Amino acid sequence: MKVLAILYDGGEAAVQESRLLGTVENKLGLKEWLESQGHEFIGRSRIMLFKDQCSSTLYKEGPNSDFQKHIVDAEVLITTPFHPGYLTRDLIAKAKNLKICITAGVGSDHIDLNAAVDRRIQVLEVSGSNVVSVAEHVVMSILLLVRNFVPAHEMIERGDWQVSDIARNAFDLEGKVVGTIGAGRIGYRVLQRLVPFDCKELIYYDYAPLPEAAAKAVNARRVEDLKDFVSQCDVVTVNCPLHEGTRGLVNAELLKHFKKGAWLVNTARGAICDKDAVAAALADGTLSGYSGDVWNVQPAPKDHIWRTMKNPLGGGNGMVPHYSGTTLDAQIRYANGVKSILDNYFKGKEQEAQNIIIGLGRYETKAYGQR
Amino acid sequence: MKVLAILYDGGEAAVQESRLLGTVENKLGLKEWLESQGHEFIGRSRIMLFKDQCSSTLYKEGPNSDFQKHIVDAEVLITTPFHPGYLTRDLIAKAKNLKICITAGVGSDHIDLNAAVDRRIQVLEVSGSNVVSVAEHVVMSILLLVRNFVPAHEMIERGDWQVSDIARNAFDLEGKVVGTIGAGRIGYRVLQRLVPFDCKELIYYDYAPLPEAAAKAVNARRVEDLKDFVSQCDVVTVNCPLHEGTRGLVNAELLKHFKKGAWLVNTARGAICDKDAVAAALADGTLSGYSGDVWNVQPAPKDHIWRTMKNPLGGGNGMVPHYSGTTLDAQIRYANGVKSILDNYFKGKEQEAQNIIIGLGRYETKAYGQR
Fold first, then answer.
1. What region, left, alpha or beta, does residue B104 occupy, with left being phi > 0 and alpha being psi -120 to 50 degrees?
2. Which residue range or ranges hold the D-isomer specific 2-hydroxyacid dehydrogenase NAD-binding domain (chains A, B) (predicted)?
3. Is residue A369 part of a domain?
4. Which residue among B23, B156, B326 places its CB closest to the CB of A321?
5. Would you say A42 and A3 are in contact if contact means Cβ atoms under 8 Å apart?
6. How sure is the predictor about B63, in pLDDT bands with cuts at 50, 70 and 90?
């Protein structure tokens, strides 16, 4: 059986750090295991090309890439959300042998899921493998925006000391209203971690209410209308999957309903927030800060405006590359999870229900917009 | 009555942002109130001079500073911990009229407390005014060190994208052992905020055990021996006052007992950690990171090694100027607190017990090393 894994180049780092399992070099720790069972394992890297223009269209691999070459006869495709191998409908048409796609991590929007349904290709994720990692990153990002960390650290690095220039835009999280768009596996963990911060209120927006006990445990109130929801938040955090119903959800129109000077954290998917609308809102002070690790195209082009955008006081940018869900702790969990999914697949055993995005010919989750 | 306030220059920021109450420009909002009662109010800034050599000795104001000129006949001295006006025994000897020192914030180690006892000068703080602010900063700092935020953000700013270079030193807080040196008003709030992060264990080192219910509420275990304590921690956070018993507490000898690659966060006072020992430990990987907002002398000299020190992978520095306790939210609280202490003083009313560091001729707290 041919297993194709599109991972990311770890380079020297991966040679020195064997716990960097999600890299081409360390191959999720799967190579020997697969080959010992007689399978063919092709581990390739996502080609890193920077496009001149950033766009919200899917980033396509070139026709001569290893991905395009090997997808033709691979039965199993493994990808990551970090340097995603984008599996478009066109590529799926070429992938005559493909039966199962496994995302090493959480978030399979880089795969054309409707096309996978049509072709009866299963799509699985390692659900839960990095939800805590991402939730921690969200709480960190909220704190560093509200508390104005980045300009403070930059001030120290450049040899200055002017407390008032930092303090004038530094606040406590205590007493603020924090709301999550999406209160699923990650969003709920964010709420849990915020409970002891004595926020004024925790609220959420989701297509369904939380179970009563779960809502009570974090004392979170649901707001059903999105505009109404954002208008109540000092901090908005995005924790929903990307699908056609959430693409561009936070756009210029919605930003008009935000509280003046709110902070926005998005570690879900870049394309949920409109790139230019966010940059404009930060520049004019509609937002005091924007932070996250996800971009509408990854790797982000060198000139992507989110790399350098700032608020009127020169701060408010907490962007990082997409790594919140790929800490070394998370890599162990999703490498083990991929192995377990593969093992079930080889043996014809049932998959864990929570990992199945697309079963044979149908969505098994509502998380990607299927109601 | 002459009231002297040594605050910090807010400059243009304070003109534009009236909530920057702790600045010379905005005078804790006290000027009109004091003058309306017939008091003389002198609000001056701490002179900002960078010393060529950083040292652990107290930074002294020049003899011609406004501080030295007005301290001679002031009855009330107001200072802040952020740009502290250092009140040495020499200065106290000159301050013939001084009856009460009020710290707008928490932490009065910039005052020679023993000299204040000898001269029967009261010392009060606005206890609780910024403990939450600092505790939030601690949790933020722990997360950003453990998760390797700063190098990730720098990578984005400079136009790069190499996830593996970040992920190789990024971890989750979940499953780690976090310990606080000091489980008082700030340290305990740190523990409270860490509870939902599912750390492997929360531990603390303090001269007295927490009340049983308080310890149980955060599920924290006390370790009585400091070397034993640090050897168990993945993350050590310093939350104790600076006094002769804690000066240089984290030194080269103690660092030998840290877990290899531990993270250290200190928002208490810079001089609790030995400057050069910390820098050396970060450089050789004994520490993976050091973060905080306090320095052995403030403002920190331009060439202070803590500004630019790094771990062997080029990260691990989360330093900022001293502002964690002076968010705009905290400034409202400590400005109101100073007013309340002044009001009690003018009216001869009893002060709130929790605010009194030095009463008439004696320590009223054990927090500054008096057992």
1. beta
2. 140-311
3. no
4. B156
5. yes
6. low
Would residue B269 show up in a list of annotated catalytic residues for this protein? Answer: yes
Question: Which of the two residues, A297 and A286, has the higher pLDDT score?
Answer: A286
- Is the same domain home to B210 and B345? no
Spatial distance between the Cα atoms of B169 and B126, rounded to a whole number of angstroms:
39
Amino acid letter, A76: V
Indicate the residue type of A242: L
Neighbours of A80 (CB within 10 A): 28
**Which three-class secondary structure state does DSSP give residue A103?**
strand
pLDDT tens digits for range B88-138: 999 999 999 999 999 999 889 999 999 999 999 999 999 989 999 999 999
Residues B178 and B252 in one domain: yes
Provide the sign of the torsion angle of the four alpha carbons B206, B299, B78, A170, taken in this order.
negative
Amino acid at A332: I
Name the 3-class secondary structure at B54: coil
User: B255 and B350: one domain?
Assistant: no
Q: Which amino acid is at A360?
A: L
**B-proximal residues of A, 289-318, CB under 8 Å:** 293, 298-300, 302-303, 307-308, 317-318
Is the pLDDT score of B58 beyond 50? Answer: no
Region class of B107: left (phi > 0), else alpha (psi between -120 and 50), else beta: left
Structural domain contains residue A250: yes
| B131-181 confidence digits (pLDDT tens) | 999 999 999 999 999 999 999 999 999 999 999 999 999 999 999 999 999
The residues facing A263 across adjacent strands are: A235, A289
A70 is in an annotated binding site: no
- The closest CB to that of A163, out of B143, B308, B321, belongs to B321
Query: Mind telling me how many Å the CA of A105 is from chain B's nearest CA?
Result: 14
User: Is residue A108 marked as binding?
Assistant: no
Q: Which domain holds residue A109?
A: 2-127+326-363
Chain B residue closest to A303 (CA)?
B159
How far apart CA A156 and CA A316 sit, in angstroms, is 17
> How many angstroms separate the CA of residue B54 from the nearest CA in chain A?
14
Q: Which of B269, B296, B311, B317 is catalytic?
A: B269
Q: Check whether residue B161 and residue B77 sit in a common domain.
A: no
CA distance B345 to chain A (A): 29
Q: How many domains does chain A have?
A: 2
Mean pLDDT value of segment A46-72: 57
Q: Is A63 found in the same domain as A193?
A: no
Contact B153/A150, CB-based, under 8 Å?
yes
Q: Residue A122: which of A359, A364, A368, A370 has the closest Cα?
A: A359
Q: Quick one: closest CA in A to B48, which residue?
A: A161
Spatial distance between the Cα atoms of A243 and A10, rounded to a whole number of angstroms: 29
Tell me, yes or no, whether B268 and B121 share the same domain: no
A137 and B147: CB-CB below 8 Å? yes
pLDDT of residue A59: 44
Q: How far apart are CA B205 and CA B15, in angstroms?
A: 43
Q: Is A129 on the interface with B (CB under 8 A)?
A: no
Q: What is the CATH number of the domain that holds B252?
A: 3.40.50.720
CB < 8 Å to B10, chain A:
164, 168
B325 is in an annotated binding site: yes
**B222 annotated active-site:** no
Domain for residue B370, yes or no? no
Residues B246-291 have pLDDT tens digits of 999 999 999 999 999 999 999 999 999 999 999 999 999 999 999 9
Instruction: Identify whether residues A193 and A309 lie together within a single domain.
Output: yes
Q: How many whole angstroms separate alpha carbon A46 and alpha carbon A7?
A: 6
> Looking at this protein, which amino acid is placed at residue A19?
R
pLDDT score at A62: 64
Do the Cβ atoms of A265 and A237 come closer than 8 Å?
yes
A186 annotated binding-site participant: yes
Q: Is the same domain home to B146 and B267?
A: yes
